[in-house]
Design goal:
about 350 residues; alpha+beta; eight-stranded mixed sheet; 6 helices; about 35% strand
């Protein structure tokens, strides 16, 4: 019997939000989606200048330039899954329901992590962690712990940027969250955890940020965010994301569920799904969004030193990561193939 595609399409949409709480903590631009594929937002130009006690006439006439915001939605498609006819008759569980649930979970994960990448800020909106050195959980070598003072710096920057205090959020991966909470006193942790709400994904509140956590958030190489699915390089650093709900947006377009029952070539039924979703940082100056990227433990490069893969050094004001064990030559340039620039 055929499935009710409309019901599954609705369920895919409804499960995107609880699986990815951050998708609800932003500006919703669904109303600006055209034909399920493109976002087009009419955008007013600069307001006219007002002068006090104008003395020069005629006044200068300026034509307002309206620059609309337009961007394409990303398309997420699940691999088609085949359920052969024999499985429907022989297995003791409903394989179709299991396949559909797995399809939904796969899309949820891809959509969630890719939206964070869409919100990853520019180089000028990056802070670095400053705690003690620990083994990297992304990349190789060592990285600096996520210290309480790092989140406090984010709070200070938001204050300087005049970002509203209500509506500040931060999402942190499990390892960095563990580093952060390990530093809390018993009293601090009690206050931190008083706002825990599994229904919304909230795990705590600290320095004015409501905190969320997930297994994967963001990663950077140098000053650039790494697109999810890209091979991890030795110099990759994990990152947390801080934002205000008015500073980022998401837009949901077409959602489709596909089925082909009784395929004569495959002797069974085939199912797949498609979701179009996109997002962006709303302000051109990036205010209201910060990435807290792991800091690297680096020292000045020195001739004759034994280096191992994963160590960071500074040479001519640039930071490099060692990609092959070696003993340094008399000049850094001689060993250039054994180093990769970080920033």
């Amino acid at each position: 019997m055929a499935i009710q595609r409309e019901i599954w399409e609705q369920e895919i949409v409804e499960n995107l939000w609880p699986a990815n709480p951050h998708l609800n903590l932003c500006v919703n631009a669904d109303q600006y989606v055209l034909q399920g594929k493109v976002v087009h937002i009419p955008n007013a130009g600069a307001a006219p200048v007002t002068q006090k006690n104008r003395t020069s006439l005629p006044a200068s006439v300026a034509r307002r330039q309206d620059i609309d915001v337009t961007y394409a939605l990303d398309e997420y498609t699940s691999d088609p899954v085949l359920i052969v006819n024999a499985d429907k008759a022989e297995l003791s569980y409903d394989k179709r329901s299991s396949v559909l649930a797995d399809t939904q979970q796969s899309i949820n994960e891809s959509v969630g992590v890719m939206m964070l990448y869409n919100w990853a800020p520019m180089a000028s909106r990056i802070l670095r962690t400053s705690g003690a050195a620990v083994p990297a959980h992304v990349g190789i070598g060592s990285r600096r712990k996520f210290a309480l003072s790092d989140l406090k710096k984010a709070q200070k920057q938001f204050n300087i940027d005049n970002v509203p205090t209500d509506g500040r959020y931060a999402i942190i991966d499990a390892e960095m969250m563990d580093q952060l909470t390990d530093q809390l006193t018993e009293t601090q942790y009690r206050d931190f955890s008083s706002v825990i709400d599994p229904a919304t994904g909230v795990v705590g509140r600290l320095y004015g940020f409501t905190l969320l956590s997930r297994s994967q958030v963001l990663s950077y190489v140098g000053l650039n965010a790494v697109e999810p699915g890209t091979a991890v390089s030795p110099a990759t650093c994990a990152a947390a994301l801080c934002w205000h709900t008015s500073s980022v947006e998401r837009a949901l377009g077409a959602v489709n569920f596909f089925e082909k029952e009784g395929d004569p070539q495959y002797y069974g039924d085939i199912y797949s799904a498609l979701v179009r979703l996109g997002g962006r940082i709303r302000r051109s100056d990036g205010k209201g969004v910060l990435a807290i990227v792991q800091g690297a433990e680096s020292t000045p490069w020195a001739s004759g030193t034994k280096y191992i893969a994963g160590q960071f050094v500074v040479s001519n004001v640039l930071t490099y990561i060692c990609i092959a064990d070696h003993t340094a030559s008399a000049a850094f340039e001689t060993d250039a193939a054994k180093w990769k620039i970080v920033e």
